Amino acid sequence: MIHSFASALLALTLPMILPTAAQTTVRYMPLGDSITEITCWRSLLWTQLQETGYQNVNFVGSMTDENPAGCSIENYNHHSEGHQGYSAVGIVNGNDLVGWLNNNPADVITMHLGTNDIFGGQTTQQILNAFTTLVQQMRNSNPRMKIIVAQILPIFVGSDNTQVQALNSAIPSWAASQNTTQSPIWVVDQYDGIAPSDLRDDVHPNSSGDSKMAAKWYPAVVGAVNTVLGATTTTQSLYGQCGGLGWTGPTVCVSPYTCTFGNEYYSQCL
C-alpha cells in the first residue's frame, strides 16, 4: 500500500488561502489517459474550485468531450488533455505534449499517466524516463510550470497491480530528483484508499472513485495556483511541509493536523 507520507516527500508547500479578484487567471491542464478523459473527477474538481473562490482557474486543453461519463455535473469547463488509450511513452514518442502546450499553454498541470504503459509492458524505468521527458517539455513551454504528478490508481486486473505499486513506490524519489524551486513538482497519492468498489471496471473510477480523486487533487491544485499567484500563508495544510533542515516556511498546521517528523530534511502536516 502506498501511504500519504510517501506521496509528499518533496520540500514544497500547499498554501490554502483564497485569491482576490485582482489576481490573474491561472491556466490548468488536466493531462492523462482515459482516467482523465472519460471520468467525472474533473467536473467535481472544477465545481469545488468554483465554490471556494477559485473562479480564476481556467481548465485548458484540446479535448472538450461533452460529458463522456454521464457525470451528474454537466455544466463545467470540459477542456483537458485526457486521451483514451494514451501512454506516457506513447505521448513522448509522438511528441504530442509539445503541440498540446503550444496550442493551450498552461501554468499548472496534473498528470495521471502510466496505466496504459503498464498494460503495454513498459518497465517502471521506461515510464519514469518518459515522465522526465514530459517534465522537460512542460518546462520548455513554461519555465515556471507547476507540476502535480499522481501515484496512479490501482489496476485490479491480473497481476498488473504489482507493477502499479512498483511505479508508485518509485515516483516520490523520481519527483524529488526533478524538482526545482522555479518549477516545483507535487506528488499526489491517488492509489491509497481506492478499493475495487471505487472502480467501475477494475481500472476507471466510478462515482465514489471520482469523488476520492477530486478530493486528493484539490489541495495540490490550490497550492499550485496560489504559488503561481504569489500567495503567501502563515499556516500549512494537509500534506504540506512544516519543518526540516533549511526550511523557512510555515511551521504551524491548520487544524486538526499536526506537524509530524519524517526525517531531518522533512516534516509534514498529517
TrEMBL record:
SUPFAM superfamilies on file: Cellulose-binding domain (SSF57180), SGNH hydrolase (SSF52266)
GO cellular component entries: extracellular region
The entry's keywords: Signal
GO biological process: carbohydrate metabolic process
Pfam families per the UniProt record, alphabetical: CBM_1 (PF00734), Lipase_GDSL_2 (PF13472)
Source superkingdom: Eukaryota
Protein name: CBM1 domain-containing protein
Organism: Talaromyces amestolkiae
